[in-house]
């Protein structure tokens, strides 16, 4: 397996390349972080200044933090993260896509590759996603991937700000039963 910066595996799909984020990605990241259509759905308060994004990227040592690159143009169009890994069993997924690339099923393509990676390569047993209740597009995506709706909390912590948040989870068994995926290895 090829590795990019920070030992992040380089993963390819039909239309995309996922590789570790670098300081060179800062302008693209700033673009979607400051786009009002994207920002409204992001947890917390993402930075709005290029120098802050560059500093964050310089310090980031996460092994499972990818830039999503469009193969056709080599353009950064989003990011995907597997984070808050607990005891090697449980983790949270996070994703962002630039507004102009919504509706092209890029995140579906990413999820169809990264969910098996999380279960088979990392060895996780449960994935979680937290989504603002009103974010119907994101909720539809995770439901299509087989995630199970767990709960909704009113006025919950959403990355450091208060929002109504829905929580979803997925196990290898759930995913395999929805997609009958041969490449999910169950213990």
Strand order in space, largest sheet: 1-2-3-4-5-6-8-7
Tell me what the CATH architecture is.
Answer: 3-Layer(aba) Sandwich
Order of helices and strands: EEHHHEEEHEHEEH
End-to-end gap? 23 Å
SS field, number of helical segments: 6
Helix content: 25-40%
- Shape verdict: globular
Give the DSSP E fraction (strand runs of 2 or more residues): 25-35%
Report the major sheet. Answer: 8 strands, mixed
Mean pLDDT over the residues:
89
* Content-based structural category: alpha+beta
What would CATH call the homologous superfamily? Gcn5-related N-acetyltransferase (GNAT)
Q: Report the C-alpha radius of gyration, rounded.
A: 16 Å
- Counted up, domains total 1
CATH topology: the name is Aminopeptidase
Q: State the total count of DSSP E strands.
A: 8
Query: Can you tell me the CATH class?
Result: Alpha Beta
Low-confidence stretches: none
Fold topology:
Blueprint: E1 11-12, E2 16-20, H1 26-33, H2 36-39, H3 50-59, E3 65-70, E4 75-86, E5 90-97, H4 106-122, E6 126-132, H5 136-144, E7 148-157, E8 162-170, H6 172-179
Helix pairs in contact: 1-3
Describe the structure.
With 187 residues, the protein is of the alpha+beta class. It has a single domain, classed as Aminopeptidase (3-Layer(aba) Sandwich), CATH 3.40.630. The protein has helices at residues 26-33, 36-39, 50-59, 106-122, 136-144, 172-179; strands at residues 11-12, 16-20, 65-70, 75-86, 90-97, 126-132, 148-157, 162-170. The protein has an eight-stranded mixed β-sheet, with helices on both faces. The chain is globular, with a radius of gyration of 16 Å. The relative contact order is 0.14.
């Amino acid at each position: 397996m090829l590795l990019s910066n920070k030992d992040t595996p380089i993963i390819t799909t039909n239309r995309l390349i996922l590789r570790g984020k670098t300081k060179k990605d800062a302008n693209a990241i700033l673009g979607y972080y400051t786009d009002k259509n994207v920002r409204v759905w992001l947890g917390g308060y993402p930075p709005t200044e290029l120098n802050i994004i560059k500093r964050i990227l310089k310090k980031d040592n996460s092994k499972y933090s990818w830039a999503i690159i469009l193969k056709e143009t080599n353009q950064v169009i989003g990011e995907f993260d597997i984070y808050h890994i607990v005891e090697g069993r449980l983790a949270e997924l996070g994703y962002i896509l630039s507004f102009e690339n919504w509706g092209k099923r890029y995140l579906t393509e990413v999820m169809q590759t990264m969910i098996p990676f999380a279960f088979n390569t990392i060895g996780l047993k449960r994935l979680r996603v937290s989504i603002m209740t009103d974010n119907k597009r994101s909720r539809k995506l995770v439901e299509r991937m087989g995630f199970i709706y767990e709960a909704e909390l009113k006025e919950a912590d959403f990355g450091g700000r208060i929002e109504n948040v829905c929580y979803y989870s997925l196990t290898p068994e759930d995913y395999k039963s929805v997609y009958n995926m041969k490449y999910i290895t169950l213990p």
